[in-house]
Design a protein that fits this description.
Blueprint: H1 21-37, E1 43-54, H2 58-67, E2 71-78, E3 85-93, H3 94-97, H4 100-107, E4 113-123, H5 142-149
Antiparallel strand pairs: 1-3, 1-4, 2-3
């Protein structure tokens, strides 16, 4: 999650039955419920890349980038003949680009130069996300969660 602020706007306690650690218990419950109710959107990190490679490897590398949901914003040719190099710039999702430096080395014969810089976040496309099951007792299951936190389960 990025840029989140939480403000407690209402709460109650009882002078006999409430302990300060009770608020530690209910915070995950309230936060998960609020995130579901707010319609949270899953974001994925994006890299901005700058790439220089031999002209003869360009088509294979471009195909690889596009197959990884990358976008190319600049494509220029530098030099002539055997020294011609292709300069590419664009954006690539981190999730699909983690092994791209290795693939680039293979496709360019080790002659590709790659620069990656974090470029923000974008909503994850439908079908591309991975949801991990909650480990332990889910705070959305109020009764079981409270019993679990108190060691009664």
């Amino acid at each position: 999650m990025t840029d989140i602020a939480v403000t407690l706007v209402d709460g109650e306690d009882h002078h006999v039955h409430t302990h300060p650690l009770d608020f530690v218990t209910v915070t995950p419950m309230a936060l998960r419920r609020a995130l579901f109710a707010a319609g949270s959107v899953l974001l994925e990190p994006i890299w901005r890349f700058r790439l220089r490679l031999p002209e003869e490897a360009a088509s294979r590398v471009i195909g690889e980038l596009l197959g990884r949901r990358g976008t190319i914003t600049r494509d220029e040719l530098e030099g002539e003949g055997a020294l011609a190099r292709r300069c590419l710039e664009g954006r690539l999702p981190v999730a699909t680009g983690l092994d791209f430096p290795v693939v680039l080395a293979r496709l360019s014969g080790g002659r590709g130069l790659l620069e990656l810089v974090h470029d923000g976040y974008e909503p994850c496309p439908p079908g591309e996300s991975h949801v991990s099951p909650y480990r332990g007792v889910d705070p959305l299951d109020r009764e079981r969660y409270i019993l679990s936190v108190r060691g009664a389960l």
